[in-house]
Input
Amino acid sequence: MVDMATNAASGSALNPRGPKPKKAFSRGNIIVYGTLFVVAIYYALPLYVMIVTSLKGMPEIRMGNIFSPPMEITFQPWVKAWQEACTGINCDGLSRGFWNSVRILIPSVIISVAVASVNGYALSMWKFKGSEVFFTILMIGAFIPYQVMLYPIVILLREAGLYGSLTGLVLVHVAFGMPINTLLFRNYFASIPDELFKAARVDGAGFWAIFFRIMLPMSLPIFVVSLIIQVTGIWNDFLFGVIFTSQDLYPMTVQLNNIVNSVQGVKEYNVNMAATLITGLVPLIIYFASGKLFVRGIAAGAVKG
Amino acid sequence: MALAEEASRTTTRTDAAPVRRPNRWLKNLTGKVAMLPMILTALVIFLGGTIWTIVYSFTDSGLLPRLRWNGLAQYERLWSSRKWLVSIENLALYGVLSVILTLFIAFTLAALLDRKIRFEDAFRTIFLYPFALSFIVTGLVWQWILNPEFGIQGIVRGMGWETFNFDPLYNPNIVMYGLLIAGLWQGTGLIMCIMLAGLRGIDEDIWKAARVDGIGTVKTYVVVIIPMMRPVFVTSLVLIGAGIVKLYDLVVAQTSGGPGISSEVPAKYVMNTMFGGQNLGQGFAASTMMMVMVFIILIPWAYLEFGGKKRG
Output
């Protein structure tokens, strides 16, 4: 309010420039902010409900309102979700799924980003006859429903003795992360001036020397973007996890679904919500920490992914 | 490793020099080797896997895939299966509503955020965070919020409106709307961001011209801005469309296809027949149909995007 007043004053003191200063509470403003505020509540509500429910005891949940804040805060549901929640006969909680997911995530992300960056680099600077054809197949493949390719992959992995292992799942993540990330790096490297590449060639640098010494240091932002896409994508995966691993190796999303949607026993909603929140925590932290880069990442990925 | 690669490169170069015409296949060898993972993925998994599934969808594979020709029998069975028809119907309903509502909500929010408002970053952060969450998390949260006993229905009844009914997850007639609420919550933020980027790309002069001509804000959006943003809308449409066909995790988490089979979707039908029902041929036929659906959406787009450009 104060800002606007001083702005308006200084504006009229000089020349009347810019749009007519608006009143802070004009009808238009009330509609704009009102709509945004109501919609923001709809979007924020589930996160709030998750947090609130996970901090309540079961008696309080049975009596009350899912939107009301907890009367007594308890962290018991979190502890139970982490250590004791049951899936089938295993009752060692979500921690197992968490560590499985970490063991899947780290190699998958490193390999897929490495492979995709080399692909993108080679596609934009070391083209050969047919390289674009392979790339086109890859991009069309990105639109084909995964279900079409699942069974052939099961056979391939079984032949290689990797079906049901984490290694097999890592390979699947690398393959399916390839189209979008390759596209990302290809477009990025294509925007680097050709002269730079030619100068390096004249100086005698080869494929890898140019990649490691010149391109890599220049492309940190796009690496971060690709990293964000891969980390959230792989962490949130359910389909591949459920098919390519077995009971003990299930990633967190699969285990979470098994815990919450299990038919046996009394439903402990607070434990369920704590488990749900813990599973969502990793991508949420990345989202809130990376800020604008996340937006850039998904927008970049979305443009033609 | 890098050094070794380079060494081999230079040796091939010197070897080839006296021959005058270097071997076509050895040219740019490192580039080709470096792209090997991509080439293999493209050919073996994407191309090979797809062809394999299509071929085997014409066989009578049951527990294991086998090449015994069966003509179109799997497809006939598929299209006379009630579960598949329900799945298609559900997907059509979800798809149409999801496209319309996502585009509408996302554009409205983007336009509101583009009105040079305060706290833009805060609003955008709130609208987009669901996109970071998985469909499993999304489905489970909404399952809880829509719980008839403790969720929205219970609360409204508790406030005195005893006959209030809103239990989408337990009512076969409206269960798809329950999924839609969750799906929109998760996905609109992304489209909003894309639209916002599109709006930011529009020249400020357009707005000035519209103001000079005395066109109102809303009318300017509808008549001038939206037609200008055609490419953004097309991209959004493709994104939403590709996501809809894949709809699977959300259903598994939120309703498991229930009550009964009232929220089954094609992707789930494929998974159930392929990995649950030991009925591979059906799964292959159903997944091939899913692919056909994607291409029905994509081909007109590709034609408009790329076909038009070449002629123009």
